[in-house]
Amino acid sequence: xxxxxxxxxxxxxxxxxxxxxxxxxxxxxxxxxxxxxxxxxxxxxxxxxxxxxxxxxxxxxxxxxxxxxxxxxxxxxxxxxxxxxxxxxxxxxxxxxxxxxxxxxxxxxxxxxxxxxxxxxxxxxxxxxxxxxxxxxxxxxxxxxxxxxxxxxxxxxxxxxxxxxxxxxxxxxxxxxxxxxxxxxxxxxxxxxxxxxxxxxxxxxxxxxxxxxxxxxxxxxxxxxxxxxxxxxxxxxxxxxxxxxxxxxxxxxxxxxxxxxxxxxxxxxxxxxxxxxxxxxxxxxxxxxxxxxxxxxxxxxxxxxxxxxxxxxxxxxxxxxxxxxxxxxxxxxxxxxxxxxxxxxxxxxxxxxxxxxxxxxxxxxxxxxxxxxxxxxxxxxxxxxxxxxxxxxxxxxxxxxxxxxxxxxxxxxxxxxxxxxxxxxxxxxxxxxxxxxxxxxxxxxxxxxxxxxxxxxxxxxxxxxxxxxxxxxxxxxxxxxxxxxxxxxxxxxxxxxxxxxxxxxxxxxxxxxxxxxxxxxxxxxxxxxxxxxxxxxxxxxxxxx
Length: 545
What we know:
Elements lengths: L1 H17 L1 H24 L20 E3 L10 E5 L1 H11 L1 H22 L4 E13 L2 E15 L5 E13 L5 E15 L6 H4 L1 H64 L5 H36 L7 E3 L2 H9 L8 H11 L1 H22 L4 E13 L2 E5 L5 E9 L5 H68 L5 H36 L3 E2 L5 E2 L14
Parallel strand pairs: 2-7
Antiparallel strand pairs: 1-2, 3-4, 4-5, 5-6, 6-8, 8-9, 8-10, 11-12
């Protein structure tokens, strides 16, 4: 016996050490299948999902280009990132995004264990020993193999085959061998009985994955909006740099004109000093704008998961395209938007389902206060003497009975029941509060969107006036009908108006994306790109006719 058991034990140990990669692959396949199926059921679509990250540089396949001059900043070689490229890199490379994907993976991994506990679970062990005592030498061994199976109503079936062998090696060599088959069936009749009670942990694990699918989808939308917002804000900073540079150059010219007019006796010297002060102030503003822009680029790289020293610039044509297209304003009233959000918001659906969870747990805890009453059926069938493979049913032992455990001490169960009642009240309050918060978020984002539209229209008109003011005051100064302060104030107003138009444009673009996200209908693919085609969500509701 020892000759076979020890090599087999060693072989199993070696096999287990060599198959860790197989275990990982099996876990990944099972988890990914769960996530794909749940996505289709919950979201009506499936997006490719993996927690494996690429090891290479996400920028390595993107060409280096010479950046356009910005003020007195010399052109340099850098990767010019468009918004779609930035969103794709963020979805594949962001550390925060990776953690969110891993959270979803781990939730699905927990479900694989919960499901496994309801399948047949096989066990097996073997042992062998050599003993020498008072001149007698023996070899003994044994093995035990079995399985357990829990059925949907809580019934538990256990089966076990055990074998024992004893061999005497000296004096009168002989051996004794026996086997035993044992079957046990335990069926709860009161406490823990029924599918609704017995499978509560499995059901909760299934629902937890659904919640994680929804939460990840909601996070994915927010992440796309956050990335796009950071991208547009950085471009807004770049535009501010260019405006500050242009303003600085204009003020240099204004100071030079003032100097020439002062030398000709047409302006007092203090107005030249005023022009010089504004020129220096403009230079300082330009330097500060450059530093702010570089800081925003570095922070954006960090958000994408890129090193801060990566040679990256943003494609300013994205902002040019926004300016050329103008704002896209949804023609939607606030009440209709709220109605859509109450149906579409995934996190609100989670809050509602958690009330159902809390209700079920009250029923489970109430059942836990009941007595244990189990029907127990057992049978043990031994083998014939020294014939471990031949079993004798006539020599078997069979029994049937009830195991009853009176509920004399249900202190812990009482506290659990009371706790579930409180949890149900909390879940109900949380659901109503969350619904009110969704309404508030949608109305607030709708008002913000209206404000951004009005601001954009106002700032465009203000920019036209500011430009006319600069032109007119410059001509008036040359004609001696305006002083330097008028020109400087007009130039400052122009700079403020230019920055305000860009800010209003980006504010409205970001507010629009946040509005779609808060309603819960922002459609984002696996690369973070979205499509804005939501007419079907805002068709008039069926009046029932």
